[in-house]
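Structure tokens please, single chain.
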Amino acid sequence: MKRLMTFLLAVTLCSLTSAYAQYEVRGTVVDINDQAVIGATVLEQGTRNGVTTDLDGQFALTVPSPETLLEISYLGYKTIVVAARNATRIVLHEDSELLEEVVIIGYGTVKKSDMTGSVVAIKAEEVNRGAVFSPDQMLLGKVSGLRITPATGQPGSSATIRIRGAASLNASNDPLIVIDGVPVTGDGGAGMGNPLASVNPNDIENYTVLKDASATAIYGSRASNGVIIITTKKGTGRGINVSYNSSYSVKQNASRIEMLSADEYRNFMTTTYGNNQIIQNLLGDANTDWQKEIYRLSFNTDQNVSLYGSTRFMPYRVSVGYNLDQATLKVGDNQRANVDISLSPKLFAEHFTINANAKGIYQKTNWAPTGAIGNALAFDPTKPLYFTKADGSIDTSKANGYWNWLNPDGSANTMAST
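Here you go.
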């Protein structure tokens, strides 16, 4: 009996020793060039138990068993998972998909892994377009330090673009804009309120924003305020492919300024001036909401069709787009028609490539009478929208309200200067 108890006690002690056993793994993390990877994370998979490698790429970690899985990760390298027993020497490989992504920086391209300076690359497919009618609208909120402020609410008008704020009190603070390698000015100009509006957003492949001195090194002093590089799409694929994009949207003012109605206005004038006959004669019988008369529910549309593909050695792309952007203020709108032709022949066994681009644009802008916004607040709501003749037809020879120098009967309007 005593021997049996001794045997059972020995078995129990062995079981407890096995249950609480720990396995310490020591190893080294290196790259494919056998260089130590400093600061790599070695983590017991599924837990918070982990360490980072030291200056020699070495680490020591205690885990439950040799079969425990370790997760090794480092920025710019692929994450790998190995068993603790095989973690004495770990080789990390670069994440080529991330580091070899090509970024256009000016007169050439560079891999992200070789890139220095502050450069932001944005693919058009990463942008949730929505109702976007100009390329600058696609960059809103996408690049830190980039501020885009529309100058007015007029469709097609220029926008104020600033990269890292304003650097000069007197000189221009506009960044340089480069479209398919061709620099364009961003300060508006005769016949073109916004140069970016000349590009159809559907034709854009990607953006690159250069924000520091590296831009000046490439483009000179004119790029001292930064550079926005736009690359348009080229022909891809085999055979002939057709793509059609269509969008519709509506716009409406969220609110209007609350003004006196015609009855409230008459009561105010009577309370203020009493039964002054001159004032009473100037008041009309109509009830006109002048803000309602100048604003509208605007309808906007964007249509684009593209034909692209590639022959044996000639990638091609042809696109045609039409855009109508109406303002909520009546009369104002902007119509734009774009044609883009791109040919990229590859010669000498694809060792020599020619990129040929031709762009055409027709733009027609009807500028809204912005002065009507203030006038609608000042006009007399008791006056009719139109004066009518005795036969009921509209009298277009005179305007309305206190702004008239003459009354409908031809006498002088004594309130015209108020």
